[in-house]
């Protein structure tokens, strides 16, 4: 748990002070404005469903992806993820067993290099909520 909190603090630029994770988060969040990381839960890569781990491996390998929409720009219209310029986020399908279509599960990664994302997020409910993926 502490490892995940520490990783999230480092990812957002927050500090760990005297064992108190992200002790300065409230001050930095207001100073950073739209760049502040929303209060997202985390999920370890190893805790993703098997199909999610496969999708994450494909992202790191640069494909090939099973769906034509994989790797396309994710607009973040829900504004749940940190605000970034259009084109920063890309979405990838996590296959859903027994689903006749793409299903609701996705991994959304952000960064300038798709194979080496700055951060990835998992949603099991088609963008209604997200989990920050820790490795």
List the helices and strands and how they pair.
Layout: H1 2-12, E1 16-17, E2 20-21, H2 25-32, E3 41-44, H3 50-61, E4 72-73, E5 89-93, E6 106-110, E7 119-123, E8 131-134
TL;DR?
By secondary structure, the chain is of the alpha+beta class. Helix content is 23%, strand content 21%. The model is unreliable at 1-5 and 12-36 (pLDDT under 50).
Features of the shown structure:
135 residues; alpha+beta; Nuclear Transport Factor 2, Chain: A; 2 domains; 6-stranded mixed beta sheet; two-stranded antiparallel sheet; 3 helices; 8 strands; disordered N terminus; Ribonuclease/ribotoxin; nuclease; hydrolase activity; RNA endonuclease activity
Question: How many strands appear in the DSSP assignment?
Answer: 8
The radius of gyration over CA amounts to 15 Å
Number of discrete domains: 2
Q: Note the gap between the termini.
A: 12 Å
Protein name: Ribonuclease N
GO molecular function: hydrolase activity; RNA binding; RNA endonuclease activity
Keywords: Hydrolase, Nuclease, Signal
Organism: Comamonas antarctica
Tell me what the structure shows.
The protein is an alpha+beta fold and 135 residues long. The chain has two domains: 37 residues, no CATH class; 95 residues, Nuclear Transport Factor 2, Chain: A, CATH 3.10.450. Helices cover 23% and strands 21% of the residues. The chain is built from three helices and eight strands; from the N terminus they run H-E-E-H-E-H-E-E-E-E-E. The strands form two sheets. Strands 3-8-7-6-5-4 form a six-stranded mixed sheet, with helices on both faces. Strand 6 and strand 7 form a beta hairpin. The two termini are 12 Å apart. The N terminus is likely disordered. This is Ribonuclease N. Pfam families: Ribonuclease. Keywords: Hydrolase, Nuclease, Signal. It comes from Comamonas antarctica. GO terms for molecular function: hydrolase activity; RNA binding; RNA endonuclease activity.
